[in-house]
């Protein structure tokens, strides 16, 4: 019995029949963003237990809490302005925004009264979810209209988590003395890959501009849209910072022999594959971020690179350990302590989120400042009077997923 074909699969095949072939970037863009059947526009949960993967904001509210404290530090560096604009790119359901705003509302700090928080999201269905989700049990109202474009950030921060990995990628392969692009064609009405000259001069010159010689035979992914968005971010900021969190590497690592087959992966129901030609519109397709090109794009609009570090180092510098240590000072059941501890530790795990890159850029600072003065928070050295944070129903139960046996034992009380 042959698998059921999606309407998007039929639509793509008709398009290829008409054109002869399309670039992989065009194929990936349709799979993810087709307005009717694309993965991110479909009416299904993508993140969490019932989705296809989980993210740091979904893992523990400590991620949002540490970023909330980072935003406060940046606000102070910029002179504690009366209006401080924070724009989050690609907010999905709004988990990160909710955790940041929830935490700040518990600190009784004057910072939140200066905060103007926006979410830029092209998916209108997601915007509806965001408004309902973030406003739940929270007095903070998100601006609603025109959230598909970056507003002017006179003073503030643009922040994103796993945004740039979702931009469509061109795929290319290196041969002796030439670079070829991988296209998507049809053979007996099945998707097949063919190779030909690059579809644009931009692709041909991409690695020359990076001064990188690709290993012979290497298959690589190139994002041409993400850098343009980074330029728009830089253009929108008058004075402030950009925080970009994603999985990826500098170009010299990403395009080395270590990744000869590229970094393209697909995710469906918490399993991964390297086959983008199945489950059309029903699985996520992603690839690692080239932080060098993003940094170069930002520099063209006045964004200065302050640092590129791992998420593990970043969160530790912000004081994530203080949230872990605070759990032992609570009267929670041991099982709940372990659930929260595991969620927090997952954020800095070297083989997981901890290996993500965090790119910090600045623009318009009055005086030079060290990265140690930027990446620091009131949680360094202990929470003190700051509140701790605990898992809620909106977060992924990592502990229960890895150790389901404890749900049926009386070793710890089950809430």
Structure in words:
There is one protein chain. This protein has 415 residues and is an alpha/beta fold. The chain has a domain at 56-167 and 225-247 and 288-407: Rossmann fold (3-Layer(aba) Sandwich). The protein has 16 helices and 16 strands. The chain has helices at 7-19, 24-33, 56-59, 62-77, 95-107, 111-114, 124-135, 201-210, 225-236, 251-254, 291-299, 311-318, 320-326, 334-346, 371-374, 398-402, and strands at residues 22-23, 84-89, 115-120, 153-161, 170-175, 178-187, 190-196, 219-222, 237-246, 248-249, 265-268, 271-273, 284-286, 289-290, 304-310, 357-363. Strands 3-2-4-9-16-15 form a six-stranded mixed beta sheet, with helices on both faces. Strands 1, 5, 6, 7 and 8 form a five-stranded antiparallel beta sheet that branches. A hairpin with a 2-residue loop joins strand 11 (265-268) and strand 12 (271-273).
């Amino acid at each position: 019995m042959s698998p059921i074909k999606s309407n998007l699969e039929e639509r793509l095949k008709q398009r290829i029949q008409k054109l002869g072939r399309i670039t992989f970037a065009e194929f990936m863009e349709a799979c993810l963003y087709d307005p009717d059947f694309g993965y991110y526009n479909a009416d299904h949960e993508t993140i969490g237990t019932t989705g296809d993967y989980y993210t740091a904001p979904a893992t523990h509210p400590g991620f949002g809490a540490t970023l909330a404290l980072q935003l406060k530090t940046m606000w102070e560096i910029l002179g504690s302005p009366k209006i401080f604009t924070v724009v989050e790119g690609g907010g999905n359901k709004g988990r990160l925004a909710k955790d940041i705003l929830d935490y700040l509302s518990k600190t009784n700090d004057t910072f939140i009264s200066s905060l103007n928080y926006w979410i830029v999201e092209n998916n209108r269905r997601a915007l509806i979810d965001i408004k309902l989700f973030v406003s739940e049990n929270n007095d903070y109202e998100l601006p609603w209209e025109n959230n598909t474009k970056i507003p002017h950030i006179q003073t503030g921060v643009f922040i994103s988590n796993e945004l740039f990995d979702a931009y469509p990628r061109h795929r290319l392969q290196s041969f002796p003395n030439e670079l070829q692009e991988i296209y998507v064609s049809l053979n007996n009405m099945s998707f097949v890959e063919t190779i030909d000259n690059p579809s644009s001069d931009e692709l041909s010159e991409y690695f020359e501009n990076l001064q990188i010689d690709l290993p012979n035979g290497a298959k690589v992914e190139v994002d041409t849209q993400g850098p343009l968005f980074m330029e728009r971010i830089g253009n929108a900021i008058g004075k402030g910072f950009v925080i970009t969190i994603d999985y990826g590497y500098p170009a010299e690592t990403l395009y080395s022999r270590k990744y000869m087959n590229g970094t393209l992966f697909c995710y469906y129901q918490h399993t991964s594959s390297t086959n983008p030609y199945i489950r059309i519109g029903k699985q996520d397709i992603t690839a690692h971020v080239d932080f060098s090109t993003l940094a170069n794009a930002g520099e063209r609009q006045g964004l200065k690179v302050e640092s590129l570090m791992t998420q593990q180092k970043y969160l530790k510098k912000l004081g994530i350990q203080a949230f872990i240590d605070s759990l032992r000072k609570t009267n929670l059941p041991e099982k709940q302590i372990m659930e929260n501890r595991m969620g927090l530790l997952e954020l800095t795990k070297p083989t997981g989120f901890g290996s993500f890159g965090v790119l910090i850029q600045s623009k318009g600072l009055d005086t030079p400042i060290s990265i140690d003065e930027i990446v620091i928070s009131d949680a360094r050295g202990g929470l003190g009077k700051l509140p701790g944070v605990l898992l809620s129903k909106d977060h992924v139960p990592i502990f229960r997923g890895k150790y389901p046996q404890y749900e049926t034992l009386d070793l710890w009380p089950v809430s």
